[in-house]
Amino acid sequence: MKIHGIEFKGPNEEIIPIIRNGKDFILKAKAVLDFSEFEKLCPEPQPPTLMRPGGKQEPDLQDKKYIEALAKYQELRAAYMYLKSLESTEGLEWETVDMSKPDTWKNYENELKAGFTDAERIRIMNGIMIAQGFDSDKVEEARQRFLVGQGQESSD
Amino acid sequence: MIRNRGWYGAQIDLKNATIYLKDGGVGSAQQSLEIKIGEGTLTYDETRNMEYVRDRGLLDTVTEGDEEPIEVAFDFTWEFLKAVSTTGWGTPTVEDALKQRGEASVWVSSSSDPCEPYAVDIEIHYAPPCGDEQDEIITLPDFRYTSLAHDLSAGTVSVTGQCNATDAIIVRQ
């Protein structure tokens, strides 16, 4: 796909520098575009179906177990996104995370807590969100730049 | 020798209960049908045959006779049936679940012996209306119906059958 001749090639990448003892450590966060591997390991939970007398069926979106399963699914999806995003960081190794075992994915939080300050962790998370296109401030700035440009064009 | 049939039975008012029919699947592979009861009753009877042996007219010793299966009967009106579809199909009816057919055709028997006829576990979750009474989960394992009447349009079920077990499993919580 192209817009004004510019091709959108590959996922967006953010550089997250962490400075320790005067040394720069560079973390890279890359946008995760493909969740098919995640969906294979963690299929999206489906709501149970209710049948009423007469045979009419409907999904029960208020089912407690379904709501719990959906919350867990969303937590795991977010954890998968963080881990996959940081995979482009050279030399990064997790000690307690195994990508083939979804139950270990959330261990990244403890590993980050053990090694980074709150401010550093926030920078890492923000970097991942920006790479993924979730930075609402930047999107709003871009929208404002566009609207200002539109206003200038119409006043010309 | 005197033969005595010890008996324990319970009749449960199902107004405050939810019944689950469960297959023999393990973990997330287990299929189940939740039945929210409008009104009705479920009865199960446990029988124990005791043989009293006399020695010259005096009671001497006791031995246990043949085991008897739990007799189960339930008769209720359901408000709704609920199941998670693992096949992409809909909710099985009570009849489907008891007969391993239709939307319950992928259910597996709760019996560990593949040569035995298909069976399901019945689980009754009973929540007494009084707050100071404990909830009860009564499991009637390996149930097979012997007679069944089911009206889908009216939401009524009337079933009798037996379990390949001598005792119900009761857990209070």
Order of SSEs of chain A: EEEEHEEHHHH
Distance between the termini of chain B: 42 Å
Number of strands of chain B: 9
* Percentage beta strand of chain A: 15-25%
- In terms of per-residue confidence, which ranges of chain A show pLDDT below 50 for 5 or more consecutive residues? none
Tally of individual domains of chain B: 1
SSE class of chain B: mainly beta
Which quaternary structure do these chains form? heterodimer
Name the pair of protein chains with the most residues at their interface, and give those residue counts. A-B, 14 and 17 residues
Largest sheet composition of chain A: 2 strands, antiparallel
Structural class of chain A: alpha+beta
Mean pLDDT of chain A comes to 88
Radius of gyration of chain B: 19 Å
Strand order of the largest sheet of chain A: 1-2
Shape of chain B: globular
Biggest sheet character of chain B: 6 strands, antiparallel, barrel
Gyration radius over CA of chain A: 21 Å
Describe the protein's architecture and organization.
With 156 residues, chain A is an alpha+beta fold. Chain A has one domain. Helices cover 47% and strands 17% of the residues of chain A. In chain A, the strands form three sheets. A two-stranded antiparallel sheet of chain A has the order 1-2. Chain A is extended and about 70 Å long. Chain A starts with a strand and ends with a helix. By secondary structure, chain B is mostly beta strands. Chain B has one domain. In chain B, strands 2-3-5-8-7-6 form a six-stranded antiparallel barrel. Chain B is globular. The mean pLDDT of chain B is 88. The chains are: A alpha+beta (156), B mainly beta (173).
